[in-house]
Every structure is written in C-alpha cells, then in structure tokens.
Amino acid sequence: MSVNITQSTANVGLPTRTDTGSRSVFSLVLSCLPNIVVFSMLGGVMLLGHFTDWKMPKFSELVGAGTTAADDWCTSHLVPESFCIECAPNLLPKSESFGFCNLHGVAECVIDHPELAQTNTSPSLPKYDTAAAITLINRPANNSTNSLNTHRVQFTSHESVVKAGVGVDVVGEGQISDFVTANGELVFDPNRVASLSSKIPGTVTLVLKKIGDTVLSGEILALVDASQVGLLKSELLKNVSQLQLQKDNVERLTPLAVSRAISTRDLLEAKTAFQEAEVALLSTCQMLTNLGFEIPDDIETADSKTLAAQLRFLNIPEPLVEALPPGMKTANLIPIRSPFDGVLISSDIVVGNVVETSKPLFTVCDVSKIWIMLNVRQEDAKYVQTGLTVKFRSDDGDHNANGVIAWISPFVDQQTRMLKVRAEIDNPNGLLIDKTYGSGQIVIREEANAILVPKEAVQSTPDARFVFVRDKNYFDDKNPKFFHVRQVRVGAVNGKNVELLAGVLPGEVVATTGSNVLLAHLLRANLGAGCCAED
C-alpha cells in the first residue's frame, strides 16, 4: 500500500510526451511572429518603391499645388516650370525699368511713373508733398543696389495663396502725424500762484475764505488789525488839515503882498509851508496806497469830519463791517485781498493769531491756466520750434491735454542733457492737476491724407523695406497669380498703420498678414546659383 501511494503521488501533474511536443512548436511560432511582420513591411516598401520609381512626393503636392510631371517643376519658385514667369520672363514680360529714384529713395518709383501702379483705374497720386516729408526727419533709407524689387513672387493658384495664410488689403488714405516724444509734467503757471501775507504786523480779526474756495480778483480774504494803519490814517487827517490851513494862509497873504502891506518874504514863507504840507500829505497817501488802500480823489478839499468817517473803514464794504464782532470795529483794519481770480489752495490763518509780514497766510492759484513742461532729448531738439502742437497724456491715462509751444530754453541742461520746452494750455474746469507726470508728443508734421497700409504689410531686409503688391490682373483666369516686389519709404507710424511716403499709390492691393511668407519665398528663390535646378 505504501509503495503504490508514493508512486501515484509522484506521477501527479507530469506532462506526457505528446503535450510537450505541441507546446514547443507553438512557442517557436510565437517568437518568430515579430520578425515575420517586419519582413512583410519591408517587402511592401520595396514593392511600393518599385512602382513609384523610388521618388518621394513633391513639396508642391504637400502644400496643395497639385501634382505635376517630374520634369515640370521649378524648385526655386515652387511653381510648374512651364508657367514660371521668373524663369521664363517671356511668358509675362516685366514693365520698363526706370531705376532708382533719388528724390523718393525707392527703385521703380510709382509716384514719378504712375503707369507702374497695379490698379485697373487711373491711379491717384499723393495729395501732399511726400518728398518734403521724407527730408523732414531722419528716416530709414533703401540701398540703391538692392535688386529684390526686380523679382516677382508667384503662386500656382489663388487657393495656394490662401492656404499659405496670405491676406491682402487696399492701400488707403488717412490722418497720421510725425512727432517727438518727451517726458514731462503739468505745472501751474508760477506767475499765477500767489502767496499772500500781511504787509504790516497785526492780529487776525476776521477770516472769510477757506481752502478750496473760489476767489475773485480784489476779493477780501481776511481782515487784520494793525495799529500802524490807524496811525497812518491819523497822520493823513492831520496832513489834510495842515494843507488846507497853509493853502488858506497863502490865499490870504497874496493880496497883502501885492499891495505891499506885507513883505515878499512873508509870502514866500507861507508858500513854502504850503508846499511842505502838500509833500507830507502825498507821502502819507503813498504809504497807505502801498498797503493796498485807495485814497479818495477829493481828499484835499474834504471836510475833516466827513474825511474821518471815510478813512475809518477805508475800502472795507459796509456789510463786512457789520459782520465784525463787537470791539473789532476799529480804524486799524487792513484787508488781505486776492490779486487775481483763482482758487484758495492753502490757508494758515486763525482769528486772534498774531501775523508777521514774513509769514504766508494764503496761497491763491489761477487754475484756469496750466503749463506743460517737457524734457526733450538733445538729439530731438532740432525738430522743436515755437508754435508746434503738444499732446500730453498723464502716466495714469486720466489727464490729457493739448497745447502750443510758447517757450524753448536757450540751453541744454548740463546734468540731464535735456532741453526744457513749455506749452501753455487752458484749464477752464480745473481738471488738470499740478505736478501730474506723463509724456508729451510734439507734433512736427500732421497729414490728413497720408498713404497708409497695415504695419504687417511692410517687410525688411538689412538694407531695404518692401511691400508685395498684388498684380492688377490677378483674378484673370489665364493670368499667373503673383505679387510685385515694391521698395517703399516708410514715414510715420500710428497705431496699427504705417505711412508709406513712396512705393505705393492709393487703390493698390498689398499683402498684409502672411507677407513674411512672401519675403521668405523671395529670399529663398534668390539663394543659390541656379534659378531652375532639377528636382
């Protein structure tokens, strides 16, 4: 029993000879399967190469230009050689060459030769002197030996132009300007900012205005009690009385001197005393005038009692006198007046305070006028002159203003090497604020009918600038689809547009978006020795 059990256990799970053989064959087939697949693919490639003569598809077929015969493809210009107008110019002869225009700085100048314009109607010439605009400021120049403009950029079809991402736009006209940019700030006219103080020491009796109040020229801002004013008024009364007395004395003695009742010397002494009284009165009147008082015209003949009443509250309106506190209605009052219309921007005065002549009490500013002060770079100074318009924009963009240059500093600052320029502008609503920083554009030329194209239409090489003008017969069925390469002279730039002072005319159609593709195509075609190399 034990022997049988052991033998039976030993035989459990052992494969038979038939199972072992079938598994070995299956494993062998499975391990060879990848090799079989690879050799099958290589065989397929060899078979395909045999039927295609071992040639890859052309670039033109990949970009949608369609298939063409192997021997009819221009690799330089990427069009079928049978209608490549660059390789075979006789297919579409070029226009007569006029060479380089020194006046406008472009080759084949379309301004001087409008017959070159690619328009189906009579071309429109610029409405302004573009040559003068070219010489106004330094502008990028074209190399007269650059010959890229003698070529044309051709496509197999309109669809291939669209597929290349080339967009077009019509050359138009619009407003643009040349300007010099300079940093600066807004400041109040220093001639219209006044710091007011009392002309003589005293004590503040009444304050009538506070910060932010609008004031008028000559309006009283405060009253100061100054004893010196009272003394001058008393002196004035005494001098008037003395003058009247000496005048009466001269009038009385004159007939007596004529009749020789008195000596001539007595009359001369009387006249001398009268003249001294006149001088004393004039001196006192002048001192009161210097303090801002207006002296009555009839003072020499006025009754002393009436004159005393006039001088007590001289130049102070009666309603204001009535508003004075009890005990403050004295002849010592001197008013503090505004010298011009403006706004009270500071105040350092309180009723009862003692004031000195050296201490400012109010600051009044005429905010209706403001200055734009700009710092112009030394290299731009030659373009600046009085009368030019300045367009100022604050750094925060909230304050814009336009003015006219009224003053140019005669020297450049030694430290900053900047030229100070001032423009004066109106500020009727007081919205422009002192010490506002920003930048200004000094407009040196403004043109309402400038020839404009989008910025992306202009392409550059190191020595020239170009646009690509669509041929006027572009949509004719039998006409090749191509663009003329046109040298241009770039003028002012404004926003999304650029001014072309030479090279195109209004109404022509230029490549805009994707024009860099045309430049790349043009430069590629001009690399290498041959024009029509074999595939």
Can you walk me through this structure?
It is built from ten helices and 24 strands. It is α+β, with helices and mostly antiparallel strands and 535 residues long. Among the domains are: 50 residues, no CATH class; 171 residues, conserved putative lor/sdh protein from methanococcus maripaludis s2 fold (Beta Barrel), CATH 2.40.420.20; 105 residues. The strands form six sheets. The protein has a six-stranded antiparallel barrel. It has a four-stranded antiparallel sheet with strand order 3-21-20-19. It is elongated, with a radius of gyration of 49 Å. The N terminus and C terminus are likely disordered.
| Average of the residue pLDDT scores | 86
Structural class: alpha+beta
Tell how many strands the DSSP assignment holds: 24
- Terminal Cα span: 91 Å
Tally of contiguous helical segments = 10
CATH class of the domain at 81-174 and 449-525, anyone?
Mainly Beta
Q: Into which percent range does the helicity of residues fall?
A: 25-40%
Percentage of β-strand residues: 25-35%
Spatial strand arrangement across the major sheet: 5-14-17-16-15-18
Radius of gyration equals 49 Å
Uncertain ranges: 1-20, 57-68, 528-535
CATH topology of the domain at 81-174 and 449-525: conserved putative lor/sdh protein from methanococcus maripaludis s2 fold
Per CATH, which architecture of the domain at 81-174 and 449-525? Beta Barrel
Shape: elongated
Q: Main sheet, how many strands, which sense, barrel?
A: 6 strands, antiparallel, barrel
